[in-house]
Specification:
42% of the residues lie in helices and 17% in strands. By secondary structure, the protein is α/β, with parallel strands linked by helices. The protein is globular, with a radius of gyration of 22 Å.
Length: 432
Amino acid sequence: MKKIAVLVSQYYPYSSPNGKCLGNVIVQLEEKYDITVIAGKYADDSPECEAYRRHRICRIDTPVAAERRRLENAVRRNHGGKKFSAKAALFLHRGRRFLKTIFSKTSVNQQLVREYGRVLEKINPDIVVPACFPFEAILAALEYKKRTSGSVRIIPYLLDQFAASANLHRLDVNRRLKWKRHLALERLMMAESYRILYSACWQKHLGYWFPEYQNKCFLFDFPLICAPDEGRERMKFAEGSRHLIYTGMLDRKVRNPRYVLSVLEELAHRGIQLQTHFFTLGNATGMVAGAAERWPAHIVFHGQVPTETAAAAVAGGDFLLSVGNRDIVQIPSKIYEYICTGKPIIHFYTAPQDPVLEILSHYPGACCLSQKSEEFQENCNRLCAFLDAPHCPVPFAEIEKYFLQGKPAYSAELICNENPQEYGKNQADFEK
């Protein structure tokens, strides 16, 4: 039985978006392959290795990640002066990381590269599937190939951008200064990989910079198009109100909830029967917590929860809330998870070029609202009308016909099929 190593940032029980995506793909492969997932620790006491379903999870850690967890736990655990001190220490920690990112030659954490590589050496896989983000997973896979006989197959799974990322490098000037070095790392990936699987946000970038490698590149949609699990636990919410659910990251720079919270507070002021639940983490959660304190009957802040808890909340809610990215190149994978439920979706976007608008144009149960201040009252009125309108679940059979490349089996075939051209569409039409 061939061994496959899958490298992601976070995995069960607190899965990152790339962990969720490749977790679905693993379901398609774990009967035929010996699979090990390598992911970051989610807590100091999380087991280094454990069995999960029909595969294994090996967790890695770095001093920087451990220090961040310690400080974040101190902020959550303490009150008063101790909480203030913990917040100050966390601020300084982030400042040091910011400066290190700015003044380093590349936006690469070499400690993380070494940690991924250490576990790869132990399990000795035949196939390595490193996700991006983090790009460190890809670099570790390439170094592992270099240290071994070279027969290992490296198949990067490109979800988030690296050289062209608008957020990874902290400042745009930093991104531009390191552009050539980062592009050289991507070229190494293209040359040394057996096959490249990429999402839509990479298409123009690959077509412009690496057209010579188009024959081994294959496009996929996020592998999140899965039929709803009818046996999944459904979170029970208070009767007498409609419940709107948000799950995922909130970030002041990337996905700021300020406008959305203003709309929700306006609806609360109008007396609209709606309770919004935020299952979230990130540096913008303070905004949510503040709104929840002002309107406790209408806005509930749950903080970070395990993946299964968030899924139970989505299953038990009436409406689902999506907050668009300011970086419209990146497509939030969450939207595909929402679509598969068949439930009505409310999406707030910042730019008319937001790719989620195109995705939701195929979905009949969506309300898309622009985050423009001059449309605030109109958006509140439109949202009220959408909440009051009758909604029927969208059948999954209708959903999947629009997103065939987003089925996990599609990605699984692209990873393991010896002749993927027979299954997937080879990208001879790279955008240039």
